[in-house]
Design goal:
Glycerol-3-phosphate dehydrogenase [NAD(P)+], NAD binding, 333 residues, 10 strands, NADP, two-stranded antiparallel ribbon, nucleotide-binding, 2 domains, N-(1-d-carboxylethyl)-l-norvaline Dehydrogenase, domain 2, Rossmann fold, NAD
């Protein structure tokens, strides 16, 4: 039997995932602040602002701008808000979400200022126990999923039964979720790969080829794995869908906002210029400095994140970024 599921945030990924949930037989309510988006989904089953490629969203999707109305009957509440605004937005929902509901994060990022993962931000904001929090991450480019292309993802929760409940709620003929208890690993994969995607995109935009891209991706994977393990993650997570899988998709597609943002930097645009032409939030931009700070906190070197931080804050070129990745001494891989 289908569940009542609320999605907080009607951006491209939130809306695409709402469609997955509706296709899986659930009753889906989208919450958004923008009245135009609410009316579009509720009255016309169309999100012309954030996901115009889908001409008609399923009939079992609706929308509201009222927080209490959005979550009052929810069995599952999915959070799809820009990572750096999650804490402020979620505080408004504290006390409104039913005590039995599982809260699921689609967000990927490290909070600036606190260096906290999204599982920590969500649980603190809502005063939520660990067994009622789940995260979803994987190679999930929103437009392809909106077009119902075959895809897979990973659902993480410390309570495997609750992870399975969430996975069952989003299983369709084209969308296959797997489950894990490694919340930390999943969160770290989803956040840190965005920094790597910025760097790969920048290299591509600057005209570099496959060798350079492969170098950045593999060294980025090593960096994010080391950070994750230091934070308590299972290293195997980084070599599955949430790690390597997401890295491949995010670092190889113009549909990735982080890749595209980096490519624009590589072509010579400033951070301000690249931001203006971006369609949506490139989470890797605010996450980069947080990753460097997290590396300092965990005593893990983060040369790629550090060099991308210099790109974003000092305006160094792609060639300077790449030159700074490695020291002069020969080391083991």
């Amino acid at each position: 039997m289908g569940k009542n599921i609320t999605v907080l945030g009607a951006g491209a990924w939130g809306t695409a995932f709402g469609q997955v949930l509706a296709d899986a037989g659930n009753t889906v309510t989208m919450w958004a602040k923008e009245q135009q988006i609410v009316e579009g989904i509720r009255d016309h089953h169309h999100n012309a602002v954030r996901l115009p490629s889908v001409e008609k969203l399923p009939d079992n999707m609706t929308a509201t701008g009222d927080r209490a109305e959005a979550v009052k009957n929810a069995d599952i509440v999915v959070v799809a808000i820009a990572a750096q605004f999650a804490r402020v937005a979620l505080v408004e929902f504290k006390g409104l979400i039913p005590d039995h509901a599982i809260v699921v994060s689609l967000m990927k990022g490290i909070e600036r200022g606190t260096n906290k993962r999204m599982d920590e931000v969500v649980r603190e904001s809502l005063d939520l126990p660990a067994d009622r929090f789940a995260a979803i991450s994987g190679p999930n480019l929103s437009k392809e999923i909106a077009d119902r292309h075959p895809a897979a993802t990973v659902v993480a929760c410390t309570n495997l039964d609750n992870a399975t409940k969430v996975a069952e709620a989003c299983t369709t003929s084209y969308f296959k979720p797997f489950v894990t208890t490694d919340v930390i690993g999943l969160e770290m994969c989803g956040s840190l790969k965005n920094v790597t995607a910025l760097a790969v995109g920048m290299a591509r935009g600057a005209g570099y080829g496959e060798n350079t891209a492969a170098m950045i991706e593999t060294r980025g994977l090593a960096e994010l794995t080391a950070l994750g393990v230091a934070a308590g993650a299972d290293p195997k997570t980084f070599f599955g869908l949430a790690g390597v899988g997401d890295l491949i998709a995010t670092c190889g597609s113009s549909l990735s906002r982080n890749y595209t943002f980096g490519a624009n930097l590589g072509k010579g645009l400033t951070v301000e210029e690249a931001t203006k032409v971006s369609n949506g939030v490139a989470e890797g931009v605010p996450t980069t400095d947080a990753v460097v700070a997290l590396g300092d906190q965990l005593d893990v070197p983060t040369p790629l994140a550090y060099q991308m931080s210099r790109v974003l804050n000092e305006g160094i070129s792609c060639s300077e970024m790449l030159a700074g990745l490695f020291g002069h001494e020969v080391t083991g891989e």
